Amino acid sequence: MLKLDKLPFGIALGALAPVLGIVIYYFAKIDTSTVSFGDFIEYFFRTKALLTAVGSLSLIANIILFTLFINSRKDKTAIGIFAMTVMYGLMILYAKFFM
Asked: What is the Cα–Cα distance from 43 to 88, expressed in whole angstroms?
C-alpha cells in the first residue's frame, strides 16, 4: 500500500471513493443503453429512497478504505477518510430531509 500518511490525501480518497461507488452502482444495476449517467444522477437526487439506499452503499467504499488504512497504521489518512465519510453522510441526510 502507499506509504502516504497525510490528512489531505485521506480527504481526497474519502471524497472520490463514494463517487466511484455511485458509478459502479450505475454500471452494475442500471440499463446504460436506455438511461444516461446524467439522467441517473438527476433521478438519484430527486428520489429520496434511492438517495438513501445508493448513497449509503456508496459509503461502503470509504469503509473499506478506512479499514485498510487503519490496519496499516496510516492514521492521518484514515482520519481524512473518516471525516469525508461523515460529511457525505450528513449531506445525504440533509438531501433526504430538506430537499
From this structure: 18
Angle between helices 37-46 and 7-29 (to 10 degrees): 100
pLDDT at 36: 94
- How does DSSP classify residue 61? H
Q: State the distance between the two ends of the chain, measured CA to CA, in whole angstroms.
A: 39
In whole angstroms, what is the distance from residue 69 CA to residue 10 CA?
A: 9
Burial of 99: CB neighbours in 10 Å, binned 0-12, 13-18, 19+: exposed
Which residues of the chain, if any, have pLDDT below 50?
A: none
Query: Hey, where are the domains in the chain?
Result: 7-98
| Residue with cell string 489518512 | 77
Inter-CA distances, 16 with 31, 59, 81, 98, 99, Å: 23, 10, 10, 24, 23
pTM: 0.84
